[in-house]
Amino acid sequence: MAAASAHGFVLNISANTSQYNILTQAQSVGYDNSAGAKIIVNVASGVTVSGTSTYAMQTGALHADTTLTINITGSVDGYTGANGGTDAVGAVGGDAIYWETDTGGIGIYTINLTGNLRGGGGGGGGGGHAGVRATYYIDDKGIGSCIAPTYTGSNGSTGSAGAFGAVGATGANGTYGGGSSSCINTSIGSGRVGGAAGYALRENGRTIILNNDGGTVAGTVG
Description:
The protein is mainly β. The chain has one helix spanning 22-27, and strands spanning 2-5, 8-13, 17-18, 20-21, 38-43, 48-50, 57-58, 67-72, 75-77, 97-98, 109-113, 116-118, 132-138, 144-152, 185-186, 201-202, 208-212, 216-218.
């Protein structure tokens, strides 16, 4: 629910939502981005603002003279990055809040936190690719050699996705089978690393006052 008042534009988030754009929501209740104003965003207790493919919450390019205050008693959570496939790294987790206000003005930016502000965990690293081993063969002259690989083993398992603010786990190496133990095993892939965590608050060079009054911050602020 959003409303304009003598104190500015108040945006109340009272139900779960995703990918919340403050500029878009403020404009829907009459905010004019050609001049500065005051915007207050309230995330209610028990409510989660989440991301699915981009930031859970972003400011939008608010006018540089706009003062923005975000009060979080619920949760703002970035999304967990996708697990990597075979031989692929895990994807980076999503940011919880992404700041992109215009710069050079007199706007003051504040977050008052009693709830949760958490970057998304990185996706698990992919398992190593399957191993290949040749078959040992003795020809009619009694000469032994390893002929072309005939069997591909199983891929390694994908690593676990990270928790909020944590990186994903590394996947297991691939295995191999068949062939002959006297022949060299080739092409065992190493498990890839998990993805990096998303930011709890990506400031992008802005100065933001974060008042943490017993809340939880998971992930980088900066």
